[in-house]
């Protein structure tokens, strides 16, 4: 079974979705399950994980409704306010829905010490009780706080999104390499091969540009803790779905069937309890 571990749905709202600015005309519109299913079928992909793009429970409810009506959506990584006083109540409510698999916050938009805050860590510390994963969305320079976080919660399942967004078009940063290695030492952390095409300068790239980055992730996390994710429709800013999938597929060409199965599906099924 092939699972796309990271994609989004939204009904475009210019007031709410201010992060989609005028330079992103390609994605300034609705992207719904009916738009995505034909793409998955064309690439023989069996299912996906819908991930939050807005910091609201309204969107979490929307994604759960999408998943309820569309069996190819195997799970939802939603948003809840991890610093709220009624967090336990909200987690209990969402965890009662078998399609709710994890939580994410857009940490890349926060101060670098956000993941070190006591109120944030107090909230993240409650997720394991409900067997919920936590997706870490950070820029590369925020990796030190992510490392401290995963060390503090060894029983919590963490997933690093978008390989921490290094600038693919530039030579590999040794600081990024060091921090990826440090993060990967914690066996409770997985990593998504996702969001890479949009981390290129002017969205220009050759497929070989990604290989050295994937090499580092492969060496650090190993094939049992890596997942494919498209980041559709955000990826459309730089490449169509077929090309994004091809980058990972081509990289795996000479790997064993077992390794391919793990990265393209089994690891996502395991970490998100699909």
CATH architecture, please?
A: Alpha-Beta Barrel
Rounded average pLDDT:
97
Q: In sequence order, what are the helices and strands, one letter per element?
A: EHEHEHEHEHEHEHEHH
Superfamily (CATH H level) name: Metal-dependent hydrolases
Which structural class fits the helix and strand makeup?
Answer: alpha/beta
Q: What is the count of structural domains?
A: 1
Draw up the topology in text.
Elements: E1 3-7, H1 33-42, E2 47-51, H2 57-69, E3 73-78, H3 87-95, E4 100-105, H4 118-124, E5 133-136, H5 143-152, E6 158-160, H6 174-184, E7 189-193, H7 211-221, E8 226-228, H8 241-251, H9 257-271
Parallel strand pairs: 1-2, 2-3, 3-4, 4-5, 5-6, 6-7, 7-8
Helix pairs in contact: 5-6, 6-7
Q: In brief, what are we looking at here?
A:
By secondary structure, the chain is an alpha/beta fold. The protein contains 9 helices and 8 strands.
Written description of the protein model:
The chain has 274 residues and is α/β, with parallel strands linked by helices. The protein has a single domain, classed as Metal-dependent hydrolases (TIM Barrel). The protein has nine helices and eight strands. Strands 1-2-3-4-5-6-7-8 form an eight-stranded parallel beta sheet. The longest helix is centred in the C-terminal third of the chain and has 15 residues, at 257-271. The relative contact order is 0.14. The mean pLDDT is 97.
Key features?
8 strands, TIM Barrel, globular, 9 helices, alpha/beta, single chain
């Amino acid at each position: 079974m092939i699972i796309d571990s990271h994609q989004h749905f939204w009904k475009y709202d210019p007031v709410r979705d201010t992060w989609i600015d005028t330079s992103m005309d390609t994605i300034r519109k609705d992207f719904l399950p009916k738009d995505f299913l034909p793409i998955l079928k064309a690439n023989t992909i069996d299912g996906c994980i819908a991930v939050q793009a807005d910091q609201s429970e309204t969107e979490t409810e929307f994604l759960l409704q999408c998943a309820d009506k569309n069996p190819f959506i195997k799970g939802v990584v939603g948003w809840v306010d991890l610093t709220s006083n009624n967090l336990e109540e909200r987690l209990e409510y969402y965890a009662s829905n078998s399609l709710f698999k994890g939580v994410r916050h857009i940490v890349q938009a926060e101060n670098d010490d956000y993941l070190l805050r006591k109120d944030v860590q107090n909230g993240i510390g409650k997720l394991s009780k409900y067997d919920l994963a936590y997706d870490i969305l950070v820029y590369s320079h925020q990796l030190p706080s992510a490392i401290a976080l995963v060390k503090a919660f060894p029983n919590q399942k963490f997933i690093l999104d978008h390989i921490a967004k290094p600038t693919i078009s530039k030579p590999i940063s040794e600081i990024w390499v060091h921090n990826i290695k440090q993060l990967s030492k914690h066996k409770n952390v997985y990593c998504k091969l996702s969001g890479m095409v949009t981390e290129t300068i002017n969205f220009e790239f050759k497929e070989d540009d990604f290989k050295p980055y994937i090499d580092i992730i492969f060496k650090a996390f190993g094939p049992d803790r890596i997942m494919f994710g498209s980041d559709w429709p955000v990826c459309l800013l730089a490449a169509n779905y077929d090309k994004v999938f091809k980058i990972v597929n081509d990289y795996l060409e000479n790997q064993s069937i077992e390794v391919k199965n793990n990265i393209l599906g089994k690891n996502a099924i395991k970490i998100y309890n699909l």
